[in-house]
């Protein structure tokens, strides 16, 4: 199955009515549900006094389930002694995972076919089974714990599709026949059936005992970038692992003519896990081999798939991208041989010709002089001469000033971005590299080169380009100093402004105060309602701060749910009044979550510049202590730090 659709996003939090209707369907028994031994196991696992021996006896009454659980319990490497009995297997897997697996295996047995004519039941289970095997293998490579639970969740991650085919067989069949773009499937489901397959999956997974911190990433597997997770966080990692598993399953079930075009994306997804092309190919082949074994065990037909290396060798170039780069000379600078080989293949597919490459900045300078590339893609961290030094050296030459330089960086911070642009970089791509993002950056680079070549015939065109580039650089500098979610200055910009105001207050002897604000119980908001609602709360609080602070005040988002407001020429009384005005305004913020309303509150710490404070950092520290006092006193209030003590009121 290749029914990709936008991730549920707001569907997880705002479609409360849909979730209620789905829950009612589940309670009425209309959704896919286990039978026989699997149902007995689930009911037993829901009792707080359930024991391992009791569950093991229930499992033993079903020889097929016994064999499957023993197979899973003994299939992962590094577990030591094999599970000799089903009791050992149940203890090793855990009651919750046994419940989840019993549910999944029961559904596989029951729903090999059904009444929805346009729904391919065989392809659905083949795809789901490959996602299950891939999730456990990818989780092991990515050092994500709970491989058996990942297997179970991978098997049921798209159970919502089966649910829709079961509950609305006629309507869903017509919808599938009319859906010509898989990316629009979820939207069509919501429009015609009032809920999409991700909504159904979330409810069913919850009923199977999966934790919320696994369900939410699983339901964002079709478009993890839209989930808004912080880079490197566990939800971010899980959502991308589910996406990786889905795209691997998509490729396995795709027609042979289309498989080659998916290889480049899978290579880049492997790069996220630190795998080069060879390592990723071996992992895929191992996953496919285990997939075929499980397919035999579960009586699920699967298609033949050649070795990944064969697919990679036969992968066609990206024709529409290649046609845009006639005679375009590209230089890749990367010190790691495996990464360089992978990037050469990907860039070669994009530009349609061999890419020149070098192992460090010094080699690249010599090769650039020899080949005169129009576009350079360089890594940042390299021996001998790193990417920043290379870019500076390149820009010091007359011939190197017109080359378009894209920097590859593994750390996307404001300081790094500013540092790179100051060195002469034109654009940057974060590592691990996303093939679509790289293609977009290459198109921008091509546009630059084409304009530059046209300048040789028309100087006026160059002036227009220079003006556009200056505007773009100013926008990039603005982005580097702004918090994109709230629109406020970020921590770097805010603390820089505070240093300037501190110096001005020191010279003039005028008052200076700061307010440190923290949204109350913000973690609970994220955990209960999801990160999309949490982001909305942050955005609304940012609007309130901008609309409430005095003329001349400056505010920034320090990070997470903390904000800082700088109040020049404000004594303790004025600062206290400003804090209370701001706190009361935030109390009026209400966020709609389905049929309910979420009210927001904040705690505020106030501090004024005192004679014994050595620098602006001491002022911020004092405000932070006052904020802690407000939190400790019960939240949703303001506290003032004065003379080393924290108290309420303006005096």
Characterization of this structure:
With 651 residues, the chain is an alpha/beta fold. The protein folds into four domains: 78 residues, no CATH class; 202 residues, Hypothetical protein af1432 (Orthogonal Bundle), CATH 1.10.3210.10; 162 residues, 3-Layer(aba) Sandwich (Rossmann fold); 157 residues, Reverse transcriptase/Diguanylate cyclase domain (Alpha-Beta Plaits). It has 30 helices and 13 strands. Strands 7-8-6-11-12-13 form a six-stranded mixed sheet, with helices on both faces. Strands 2-1-3-4-5 form a five-stranded parallel sheet, with helices on both faces. Strand 3, helix 22 and strand 4 form a beta-alpha-beta unit. The radius of gyration is 29 Å and the shape is globular. The N terminus is likely disordered.
Identify the notable features of this structure and list them briefly.
6-stranded mixed β-sheet, 651 residues, Rossmann fold, Hypothetical protein af1432
Envelope shape: globular
Question: How many discrete domains?
Answer: 4
CATH domain class name of the largest domain = Mainly Alpha
In the CATH hierarchy, the third-tier topology of the largest domain is known as Hypothetical protein af1432
What is the gyration radius calculated from CA atoms?
A: 29 Å
Order of strands in the sheet with most strands: 7-8-6-11-12-13
- The total beta strand count reads 13
Residue windows where pLDDT falls under 50 for at least 5 positions: 1-14, 316-324
Share in helix: 55-70%
- On the 0 to 100 scale, the average pLDDT is 81
Strand content: 5-15%
Largest sheet: 6 strands, mixed
CATH architecture of the largest domain: Orthogonal Bundle
> What's the name of the CATH homologous superfamily of the largest domain?
Hypothetical protein af1432
Query: Pairing-aware structural class of the strands and helices?
Result: alpha/beta
Quaternary structure of the protein: single chain
User: What is the overall number of helices?
Assistant: 30
